[in-house]
Design goal:
The protein is of the alpha/beta class. The chain has eleven helices and 15 strands. It has helices at 18-30, 44-47, 102-111, 123-134, 159-180, 195-203, 218-230, 264-276, 296-314, 334-337, 349-356, and strands at 5-10, 35-39, 57-60, 87-90, 96-99, 116-121, 139-143, 183-188, 208-210, 236-241, 253-255, 260-261, 280-284, 320-325, 328-333. A seven-stranded mixed β-sheet has the order 3-2-1-6-7-14-15, with helices on both faces. α1 runs parallel beside α9 and α7 packs across α8 (264-276). The longest helix is centred in the middle third of the chain and has 22 residues, at 159-180.
Length: 363
């Protein structure tokens, strides 16, 4: 059946480059004579229609997407609490239960005569896309995460912007750490993969980098700080991924019930102060890494992904994710793209480079 109307959904955490994907997809679709719509706030608008009197579909025209390539965020909104497969609802007894509302999603799209859905997101969103595909929906996935932890694509858009900003921040912190002879611990995003911490830490000449892939021994980090003090370098900069954890210890939780990570920076700083007697300060970059304009690399990659998603639909593809495989963008089955997380290989060249530079990981 020929494509006439498509919908675009941006789900999960925002990332620089989302608007570029939307723009490329809309322009490429309109060039084929297709109508485009955005689903407001991921699937929240569809499952909670009473909160959206303006409707859950936002028409996307050439004028709608003009001048948005350089903008952060997403013009159609997003949410990381709109999983239609496990949507929280109140039962007859007032208890919150998880309900599978995927049939509601498919029915609503068919009612609006939407022929295909482009899902832009990370592992969670693309797993939802895969589930909807298996229930009969025509779906194309576009990989998005600043964590760079999606398998089957060399890199995801948003990652370069996050690393570039983190590197700039760490650069700035070197001078104040040196001026006050302090230890500064910089906590960056990275739940279960340490790509941001690793790349920004090396680029900004951190003294230690703690990543989820390597449980750390705090005494090894303290030894590095003390060694630098003895050599006359009386300050240290430690980069910590939010998912880092000590040997035999657990993750640091801001909210354990909702599984929100955060706080490992303060834990590391307190432990280092106790071990070294030095003053330690913490800077948590958090959502600053998600905001702002995408870098040139991320803009171009996002535009390529958006256009590739439309080409895939035009070629009759279904149930696939577009993926970067330099110098081309290829198509990967959603099943394969979501079967495992891409973590930092401990024998990769970047890790070997860090160790050759004398950066410690606490192992």
């Amino acid at each position: 059946m020929p494509i006439k109307r498509i919908a675009i959904n941006t789900g999960g955490g925002d990332a620089p480059g989302l608007n570029a994907v939307i723009r490329a997809a809309v322009l490429a679709a309109h060039n084929r004579g297709w109508e485009c719509f955005g689903i407001r706030d991921a699937f929240n608008s569809l499952m909670l229609p009473e909160q959206y009197p303006e409707g859950w579909l936002l028409p996307l025209h050439r004028e709608t997407v003009r001048g948005i390539t350089h903008l952060g965020g997403t013009i159609i909104g997003t949410s990381n609490k709109s999983n239609p497969i496990k949507f929280p609802m109140q039962d007859d007894k007032g208890k919150i239960v998880q309900v599978d509302r995927s049939d509601d999603i498919i029915k609503a799209l068919k009612t609006q005569k939407i022929d295909a859905l482009i899902m832009v997101g990370g592992d969670g969103s693309l797993s939802i896309a895969n589930a909807l595909y298996k229930r009969g929906l025509h779906v194309i996935g576009v990989p998005k995460t600043i964590d760079n932890d999606l398998d089957e694509t060399v890199i995801t858009f948003g990652f370069d912007t996050a690393v570039s900003f983190a590197t700039e921040c760490i650069d700035r912190l070197h001078s104040t750490a040196q001026a006050h002879q302090r230890v500064i611990v910089v906590e960056v995003m990275g739940r279960y993969a340490g790509w941001i911490a690793l790349n920004s830490g090396i680029s900004a000449t951190a003294d230690a980098i703690l990543i989820p892939e390597i449980p750390y021994d705090i005494s090894k980090i303290a030894d590095k700080v003390i060694e630098r003090d003895r050599s006359g370098r009386r300050f240290s900069v430690i980069v910590v991924a939010e998912g880092a954890r000590p040997v035999g210890g657990d993750f640091a939780w801001l909210e354990e019930k909702e599984k929100r990570l955060g706080g490992i920076g303060h834990q590391v700083a307190a432990d280092l102060a106790a071990h070294t007697g030095k003053e330690a300060r913490v800077v948590r970059l958090g959502h600053l890494l998600r905001g702002g304009s995408p870098t040139t690399f991320d803009r171009l990659l996002a535009l390529r992904f958006g256009a590739a998603a439309i080409r895939a639909l035009d070629q009759g593809e279904n149930g696939i994710m577009v993926a970067l495989d330099p110098p081309t963008v290829r198509y990967v089955p959603l099943d394969k793209a979501t079967h495992r997380m891409k973590t930092v290989p401990l024998d990769c060249d970047t890790m070997l480079t860090a160790r050759d530079l004398g950066i410690v990981f606490g192992d």
